[in-house]
TrEMBL record:
Keywords: Signal. It comes from Phocaeicola plebeius (strain DSM 17135 / JCM 12973 / CCUG 54634 / M2). Pfam families: CMD. This is Carboxymuconolactone decarboxylase family protein. Residues 39-125 form the Carboxymuconolactone decarboxylase-like domain. One of its GO terms (molecular function) is peroxiredoxin activity. CDD domains: cupin_HNL-like. SUPFAM superfamilies: AhpD-like (SSF69118), RmlC-like cupins (SSF51182). PANTHER family: BLL4564 PROTEIN, RIBD C-TERMINAL DOMAIN CONTAINING PROTEIN. Residues 1-21 form the signal peptide.
Amino acid sequence: MKIQMVLALAAWVINSTTIMAQETIKQTAGRDQLGDFAPKFAELNDDVLFGEVWSRTDKLGLRDRSLVTITSLISQGITDSSLTYHLQTAKQNGITRTEISEIITHIAFYAGWPKAWAAFRQAKEVWAEDITGEEAKAAFQREMIFPIGEPNTAFAQYFIGQSYLAPVSKEQVPVFNVTFEPGCRNNWHIHRATKGGGQMLIGVAGRGWYQEEGKPAVQILPGTVIHIPAGVKHWHGAAADSWFAHLAFEVEGENTSNEWLEPVSDEEYSKLQ
């Protein structure tokens, strides 16, 4: 049997609860998958590899065993589902997002750059949900050319969640980059003008929403252009699971002003897919 298949079977998620020192790890993947076809292999996988080798935590802890296993797989160029399972196990065994990044970077110099690239793709998925707070903000900043800017404190009362504002240009046409954290949106509002006026939005990064009163919400992605005439009640903001940024262009007009209205309710917002 090819080594990739052996390692893939060995990599099935460990069927156990919290593992204390010297406690035997319970694994049934071998018997579940190959019990009838290769009973001896199934026995070795479940009882020896996991039941004995991985369970020798008094000799080498689970965290270190995960590190050794990940290094071995990446070094051989094995970046299939077996690596994904062992990355997941490594996370369960206490290896952090910062540590796995440093581990794979170190491996790259000894095992090869392409192998590290492939491993990073899987590691990002496994540790994706750990990116929060300032770390998430910094990661989003790397996705776009315009700055996130400073907290939008002047208009905070008209937003649910945290938004940021960065002036891009104040000459000829005022342009601002507006960034929303996941779930952040502004209140319903209307751009007023006796002539001209309104606003134009251009998606920069992430995923967001724009909605006019009485119409379905429109998804905004990088490059999406939204034209908002004066006098139209609307709102815009981030998707629930994504940071979002758009450029906002103020359209020249006479007697322009913003009329801020009620917040977008959680019930309304939760209906968006």
